[in-house]
Amino acid sequence: MSKCIAIQGVKGSFHHKVAQSYFGEGVAVLECDSFPLLVDALLTNEATDAIMAIENSIVGAILPNYTLIDAHDLHIEGEFYLNVQHHLMALPGQSIADIKVVWSHPMALLQCRPFFKQYPHIKLVEATDTAGVARQLQAENLNGIAAIASNTAAEIYKLDILAQSIQTSSTNATRFFVLNIQKGTSNTAAAKASLRFTTDHKRGSLATILNVMSDCKLNLTKIQSMPIIETPWKYAFFVDVTFADYEDYNKAKKVLQIMATDVKVLGEYQNQKKS
Fold first, then answer.
1. Domain boundaries in the chain?
2. Which CATH superfamily hosts domain 192-269?
3. Cβ within 8 Å of residue 65, ≥6 positions away
């Protein structure tokens, strides 16, 4: 089966850019309106792989996506860091003074909200996708409305960029997971892993596990707690670790399976450097 990559949003979205960068410019994509629908595309074999945003350098982790990965036993095959530049765009012939409403994905609006303090006449409205709004502006010939999206979206949907790089930070970046449903495969060439586990509700339980990772020469690059809905006040921990020697990681993994509970290896993959 040839590759078909599920993306959240439409062509010209940041998920689309990641799919092209990771798999190649000509890769086939399946456009999904939401992350749950993206997961469904994987589970029903409509797509071979999926691109899912997991955290942003400005607004932090996308917690519902950790839940989706965990609940559906998805496999992380890789990661990709994308420098995200948000541009304000509209149909040709307009200026910012003509814009009454800006539509975009909630994450994009969060990353750009400070920019709009200087334009109190503009109302910010949440939409399902950055590039999807750009496409809608063109399809419905909407004046007075602008989108926040990528320069690729502006090119595809023939919109004018009214303001460039309006996000809070010029170094704004989003980390994406590349997902599939291949579980239980070890990757001895990996230099990074994502794990999920729970601990006993005892003093020092988490600290002891983190010390084991350190003793095994693992570098903890991310830790994220998530409440376990069916067990109030108990939490699952998602961690990312990097390592120079797979055997060090393998040793830590075996100890973790003894010391922690509900241990899942979500993925073992190459560590992609941040650009």
1. 4-83+173-180, 87-163, 192-269
2. ACT domain (3.30.70.260)
3. 35, 52, 53, 54, 177
pLDDT per residue, tens digit, the chain (275 aa), is 689 999 999 999 999 999 999 999 999 999 999 999 999 999 999 999 999 999 999 889 999 999 999 999 999 999 999 999 999 999 999 999 999 999 999 989 999 999 999 999 999 999 989 999 999 999 999 999 999 999 999 999 999 999 999 999 888 899 999 999 987 668 889 999 999 999 877 788 899 999 999 999 999 999 999 988 888 778 899 999 999 999 999 999 999 999 999 999 999 999 886 54
What class does CATH assign to 87-163?
Answer: alpha beta
pTM, 2 dp = 0.89
Instruction: Assess contact for 106 and 148: CB atoms under 8 A.
Output: no
Helix (H) / strand (E) containing 132: helix 130-140
